[in-house]
Write a structure and sequence with these properties.
The radius of gyration is 10 Å and the shape is globular. Helix content is 38%, strand content 22%. By secondary structure, the protein is an alpha+beta fold. Pfam families: HMA (PF00403).
Length: 64
């Protein structure tokens, strides 16, 4: 599991957008998000680097 701080998440739609973007590359990917702390937990077979890139490309910059 990978935990990241992500900027710009404001609603459930944002979480769905991140999940859909990751599932294009890994259909089994799961995302748990906390809007208050701006963190996401990603369970995926993707590398951490690719995961960060996909989330950023979806419009949500990864802070760490």
């Amino acid at each position: 599991m990978l935990t990241l701080t992500v900027s710009g998440m404001t609603c459930g739609g944002c979480i769905k957008a991140i999940t859909r973007a990751l599932q294009v590359q890994d259909p089994a990917a799961t995302v748990k998000a906390d809007l208050a702390s701006q963190t996401v937990e990603v369970q995926s077979s993707l590398s951490p680097e690719l995961t960060r890139q996909i989330i950023g490309d979806a419009g949500f910059p990864v802070i760490d």
